[in-house]
Amino acid sequence: MKCLPLLTVLLVHLASIPAAAQLQQENVLLVWNSRDTESQAVRDLYVARYPAVLEFDLDSVPLSNSNAVTRNNFDALIRDPLRDFINGVTTGSDLSQQIMCLVTTRGVPVRINSTVAGDEFGFASTWTSVESELTLLQQDLTATGAAALQFRYSGSVRNPYHARFNQPITGFSRAGVQTARIFGVNQTAGFQSWQAIGLTPGDMYVVCRLDALPANGNTAVQEIEALLDRAQNAVFACGSGRALLDEYAAVDQLDDEGQANIFPPRDSSENFEFDDYERTRDVLESLNIPVTYDDTSNFVDPSELPDDLPLFVFSTYGENHDVDGSENPSGLGDYVGRYTFHPAAIFLSLESFNGDSIFDGTGRGNQGQVLDAVAGGATFTIGHIREPLAYSVPDTRILVENMLVHGMTFAEAAWSAIPALSWQQVPIGDPLATLQIVPGGAERNGDGVTDVEDLYTYFVGTPLDLDCDGVASLADSLIVRDGVRTGEPTDLVAGR
Asked: Do 416 and 379 form a contact (C-beta atoms < 8 A)?
């Protein structure tokens, strides 16, 4: 594959992104709960980093120390007061044109429990994540529906922001954000879903959550602090990591973009009946990031990787390798602990219930838990709080391309990668974080000192591409040699 020099690629991409279009602190509303001590602590951490963000304190006793909420309590204690605040009903100051992004904290409920017994495995499920429901904060989702979709919150709503490339959320008009849309039912391949007629990305919110579990001898709040620190310094230096795309092609192609055309592409040139992992591989290789792509029944273990580089992008079928009795990752969602994650790592697993640990602190079966990945050092991830069904899983390629190629924030890239709203997904991470690719540096052995040991490490290890030209050559070894000679600062390299 012929590639432009990375510097040229980055300059072209940066030139295509107007500075004024970047999502700003002033566009973010931090939603927290002063009745919960962890939520208060996370609020303090975030405001210290982003002093210009707006805030909304839920301050609701029934929400304290609870990660789940009934539909009635969600409407009365979260949606209604939050919407009244944004629209200026309670303050007299209408912020509906300004606020485009919401960020929730640990201590705010993550799940809205079902209103219909036994519906969690169907397309009409009424389980949903709080974050996904808040994307459509301005729409009335309690209205009655028709046929299998008894209410608008039954089932999923097509995401108008899905598969938008290099289109920051700030570029869409907010003029109609308070306009009530007409909801119609789509039926495709035996599935029913909602489409809000006329709904645009300017009528929704991109919503992320700040959460973690106690791990590594730290409290949950300390782990969230570490997550925020990694996010504010999210840099990938060439030669500092690799990608692992661990597919299982025999298992129903879970990573087909727009599987079964439940949510067909809006652009007729896009063929969404295509392997998302292959597309992700092509994007990463165009950026000269080494990729291990496996589409066999084998669950790729660290010992099977070509080097010991930390994982920068890790997307996996995980437990779904075991559908027909093939190799199965061990442990209760803790298999991510086998790997070393790059400090700017993106982790996705195409597994049901991989967000259960957000709800109750434990995993379900062998589903790879997203908060285990955060504890392992990953910085960007998207979980499912119940059964997402294959057609709604996030598209790795879209998330990676929008962050690495187009410089979009995590909140924007995450929701451009998620096909459905009012459903199961919850992005975990700093919504304002972005990712940079930079040339690698001389510090190679991870001891924080640039010296002759780094030169030794470079030459005894796998040859690395440090100058981002796609080739490990003499020029890369000279980077190490010259860095050792001049005492290059060690912060030029992330993850090594």
From this structure: no
Question: What is the DSSP secondary structure assignment for residue 335, as one 8-state letter?
Answer: G
Output the pLDDT for position 25.
97
Maximum pairwise Cα distance, the chain: 73
What phi and psi, each to the nearest 5 degrees, are found at residue 495? Answer: 90, 0
CA distances from 217 to 7, 220, 228, 371 (A): 41, 10, 18, 15
Spatial separation of the C-alpha atoms in residues 480 and 454, rounded to whole Å:
7
| 46: helix, strand or coil | helix
Residues contacting 447, CB < 8 A, separation 6+: 453
Q: Could you count the other beta carbons within 10 Å of the beta carbon of residue 266?
A: 11
Strand, helix or coil for residue 113? coil
Task: Give me the amino acid identity at 273.
Answer: E
Q: Helix 220-232 crosses helix 37-49 at what angle (to 10 degrees)?
A: 20
Per-residue pLDDT tens for 175-185? Answer: 999 999 999 99
DSSP 188: E
Structure tokens, 59: 């301050």
Residue whose pair of structure tokens reads 């009424």 in the numeric block: 126
Q: 307 with 339: CB under 8 angstroms?
A: no
pLDDT of residue 124: 92
pLDDT at position 365 is 67
Q: Which positions ≥6 away from 202 have C-beta within 8 Å?
A: 169, 172, 173, 174, 175, 176, 177
Which residue from 334, 426, 360 is spatially nearest to 130, judged by alpha carbons? 426
Alpha helix (H) residue ranges in 80-163: 80-86, 130-134
**Cβ(312)–Cβ(463) below 8 Å:** no
**Positions in the chain whose pLDDT score sits under 50:** 1-20, 260, 490-496
Question: What token pair was written down for 212?
Answer: 């973690």
For residue 360, the surrounding DSSP H or E stretch is helix 356-360
**In whole angstroms, what is the distance from residue 417 CA to residue 413 CA?**
6
- The DSSP secondary-structure symbol of 61 reads G
Give per-residue pLDDT as tens, 365-409: 668 789 999 999 999 999 999 999 888 999 999 999 999 999 999
Structure token digits, residue 6: 């990375």
Nearest to 274 by CA among 382, 396, 380, 187: 396
Token pair recorded at residue 417: 């990668």
Residue 348's beta-bridge partner residues? 315
